[in-house]
Amino acid sequence: MKAAIRDPNPVIVLENEILYGQSFPLSPEAQSKDFVLPIGKAKIERPGKDITFVSHSINVGRCIEVAKELKEKHGVEAEVINIRSAKPLDVDCIVESVKKTNRLVTVDSGFPAFVRPPNIVKRPLLLSFFLGGS
Predict the structure, then answer these.
(1) Residue 108 lies in a domain
(2) How many domains does the chain have?
(3) If we measure between CA atoms, which residue out of 130, 58, 60 comes closest to residue 91?
(4) Quick one: angle between helices 117-131 and 91-101, nearest 10?
(5) CA 83 to CA 26: how far, in whole Å?
(6) Contact 130, 95 (CB under 8 A)
(7) Domain range spanning residue 58?
(8) Which pLDDT value is given to residue 67?
(9) 102 within 8 A of 79, measured Cβ to Cβ
(10) Is the pLDDT of residue 30 over 70?
(11) C-alpha span between 130 and 22 (Å, rounded)
(12) Taking all residues of the chain, what is their mean pLDDT, rounded to a whole number?
């Protein structure tokens, strides 16, 4: 929120109200009054080598749960990426992950008219294809 307030450009913040009231572990760095989460920088929430899950908001937690289950039941190591911002999208983070895993799943629970997965998929997959995956 601090980055959105400080940014000179218009910023739209989307939140899932189901997350209100839930607590999350925060590092001492994140609890600092000077900490600002950068706009346009994704975070790898869980490293993996077999498949890439890309999501945001409440669905990141769901992806982490599925990744744990895939590991326990099938030995599949899923990488989970929290995009944190849709525009600018951290395409480099997604491309590097897809080059490593050769598989991409986007998870979004938005309304069909406002769906983000096609935008999340198109550019990283094109770049991964032309740059060559593993």
Answers:
(1) yes
(2) 1
(3) 130
(4) 60
(5) 18
(6) no
(7) 40-131
(8) 98
(9) no
(10) yes
(11) 42
(12) 83
Q: Which residues contact 117 (CB under 8 A, 6 or more apart)?
A: 106, 108
Q: Which two tokens stand for residue 34?
A: 């000077």
- Tokens linked to 14: 């989307």
Residue 27 has pLDDT above 60, yes or no: yes
CA 23, CA 25: separation in Å to the nearest integer?
7
Token pair 């990426």 in the structure block, residue = 81
- Tokens representing 38 are 């950068």
The string of pLDDT tens digits covering residues 48-91 is: 999 999 998 889 999 999 999 999 999 999 999 999 888 888 98
Task: Read off the tokens for 64.
Answer: 């982490």
Give dist(CA 114, CA 10) in Å, integer: 19
Q: CB-based contacts of 98: which residues, under 8 Å, 6+ apart?
A: 52, 104, 124, 125, 128, 133
pLDDT value at residue 17: 72
DSSP 88: S
82 burial type by CB count under 10 A (0-12 exposed, 13-18 middle, 19+ buried): buried
**79 - beta bridge partners?**
52
CATH number of the CATH domain containing 51 = 3.40.50.920
Residue found by looking up tokens 């994140």 in the block: 30
